[in-house]
Input
Amino acid sequence: MDTRKEVSKEAVRAALQALGKGGKEISYQLVYEALGLKSEAEQAVVRSRISDMTRHGEVKRTRPGCFTYDFKHRPREAKSYEALWRFVRKAKPGWSVSECAMMTRVSYTQALRYCNWLEEEGFIERMGRDDRNAVTWRATVKADQNPETPYPPIRATDPFAKERTAAATITRLMLCADPYAPHTARGIVEAARVLLTRFEKQDNPVTELRTDYL
Output
């Protein structure tokens, strides 16, 4: 089993962003719990992912085993976008995505995804097809007027990231913290509110507990 593929960097990033809001300090254990990881192999992959993010400035270590997430940092994929954008603005009209990927040394998949987004935003437009029937492109006036690299929005990889983190927080506090301590109670209440906000207004709303069977 390829563990690295299962614990993706996007999943780790989503957990860090959910746990690190407001500059809160994050620990490896919190990330493990948020992602539901129990095996050492999976946890080792998380540590490797976070170490990689640390080298690129996305994560900042505060003390051994703890760190904060820099929400202002652009993931390292930004360099690929910069290379693609330079090509888009400088290339002669009639280029293809394959040519773009080859000249920038970026994967075809990423180049295609970026070009599709640029088309949606009006930075490039289709011209026709080449002799291999591949779609050809050209930059628009909007692209000429915008030298700064436009970045696509970061995709939300897990729509329930906040809720998973909240559930993990409640579990951790109940098992490892003093239930009588005020800060423990506050943490549990805050996490419970996250869950209620998400699920109380679903199609099957939370109803009052039935007691007629007691």
Remarks:
- The first strand starts at residue 26 and ends at 27.
- The chain is about 50% helix and 10% strand.
